[in-house]
Amino acid sequence: MTSSPDLWPAPRAVHPVDAVVTLPGSKSITNRALILAAIADGPSVVRRALRSRDTSLMAAALTSLGSTVDTSGDDWVVTPGAFDRDAVVDCGLAGTVMRFVPPIAGLGTSLVSFDGDEHMRQRPIGQVLSALRDLGVSIQGDALPFTVHGAGSVPGGTVVVDASASSQFVSALLLAGARYDAGVDVRHDGKPVPSLPHIDMTIAMLREHGVEVDDADANRWRVAPGPVKAVDHLIEPDLSNAAPFLALAAVSGGSVTVRDWPHATTQAGDALRGILTEMGCTVELDDDGLRVTGSGALQGIDVDLHDVGELTPAIAALCALAESPSHLRGIGHIRGHETDRLAALATELGALGADVTEHADGLSLRPAPLHGGVFHTYADHRMAHAAVIVGAAVDGIQVENVGTTAKTFPDFAGFWSGLLSP
Ligand SMILES: O=C(O)C1=C[C@@H](OP(=O)(O)O)[C@@H](O)[C@H](O)C1
Ligand SMILES: C=C(OP(=O)(O)O)C(=O)O
């Protein structure tokens, strides 16, 4: 007997959608807050923490190292503990767990081994491991699975990394750096670092924890040695996960408001304001939140997404539905995300009739009529977001493994259906 494929019929937006939504917290902020809390000088509270696969894996990793993480309520309480027990860390498909936990595991006195989902073994990590070795951490292995041998302290100092594959390589070293004997002086040598807002997020959060960071020079970041203060942190809504909801306003010619949109933020998703304006939407930020109103017609866009690559799947879906051509550039690094997103988007959008060309570092899309079919997600939450956006506009889209959205959004499919039910 063959098992039935996990297909979910994406609901169509048959009327303009008019909705006000409260979205779950940011994955990137929650996981940084958890890491910093685990190496802080006292208990911290992570308020309105995102409860999702990536953040649960982070909480579990920190617990296995020796911290106490109380996730029973909406506000998670983290009490640091000695990292003195041997542990096995499951990274799942979470880049933040695979890259941010090893540098703090080096501070402990135990053996900590890391593994994850099958595809996680393909995602880049070698530069973090070699940088940690240069900083004095003993590690067995050059890719997943690997083991960190904690020696009770890390000398730290100057290190050179090529962070062109992921900004998380830099964030990982900076997050732990204050607890290294000499701090860290991290220099990047290579093609431009992607996703720079995420490094700004790391720096801003370190400073909130009382850590001194010097980022005055391009491609160089210095973290002074010293204590990490415990803080009470309120997590912003996840602005990257807002993409499909704002896109729904765009494709249905309706209006969607995301509550609590911060007026100042380091989140990459804030770039959606400019991108959706350029695609023909009306975008207003006020005390109610961020409201996007679709005009009923979408314009294509020529844009460099190097800084905000994680928005690509949702933007590409919109481009496939636009009336004029688009070119998405500067995003070769997203081939190392949850899947090779450029190949996956070209394949899946192309299979539905889109006129799409895959380039080494981007995608071009030209207007073409789309039709129904199965949209494969490759276990990538943002591929599922692309699928439901197309499905809102095109009859007969079936999303394979929509449950993969649990990586960063609990019950995404239920929430999405609720907005589209008649
Ligand atoms: O530090 C972070 O929280 C993230 C950094 C970015 O990674 P890359 O620099 O690998 O693109 C981003 O795409 C990812 O979703 C989250
Ligand atoms: C690239 C992403 O995730 P990760 O944190 O696993 O790198 C993403 O969420 O788009």
TrEMBL record:
Phosphoenolpyruvate binds at residues 27, 95, 123, 168, 341, 382, 407. The active site is at 310 (proton acceptor). It is found in: Cytoplasm. 3-phosphoshikimate binds at residues 27-28, 32, 166-168, 195, 310, 337. Residues 13-413 form the Enolpyruvate transferase domain. Pathway: Metabolic intermediate biosynthesis; chorismate biosynthesis; chorismate from D-erythrose 4-phosphate and phosphoenolpyruvate: step 6/7. Its EC number is 2.5.1.19. The keyword Cytoplasm applies. It comes from the Bacteria. Pfam families: EPSP_synthase (PF00275). It catalyses: 3-phosphoshikimate + phosphoenolpyruvate = 5-O-(1-carboxyvinyl)-3-phosphoshikimate + phosphate. Keywords: Amino-acid biosynthesis, Aromatic amino acid biosynthesis, Cytoplasm, Transferase. It is an enzyme of class 2 (transferase). The keyword Secreted does not apply. Catalyzes the transfer of the enolpyruvyl moiety of phosphoenolpyruvate (PEP) to the 5-hydroxyl of shikimate-3-phosphate (S3P) to produce enolpyruvyl shikimate-3-phosphate and inorganic phosphate. Monomer. PANTHER family: AROM/DEHYDROQUINATE SYNTHASE (PTHR21090), PENTAFUNCTIONAL AROM POLYPEPTIDE (PTHR21090:SF5). HAMAP family: EPSP_synth. Belongs to the EPSP synthase family. This is 3-phosphoshikimate 1-carboxyvinyltransferase. The lineage of its organism: Bacteria, Bacillati, Actinomycetota, Actinomycetes, Propionibacteriales.
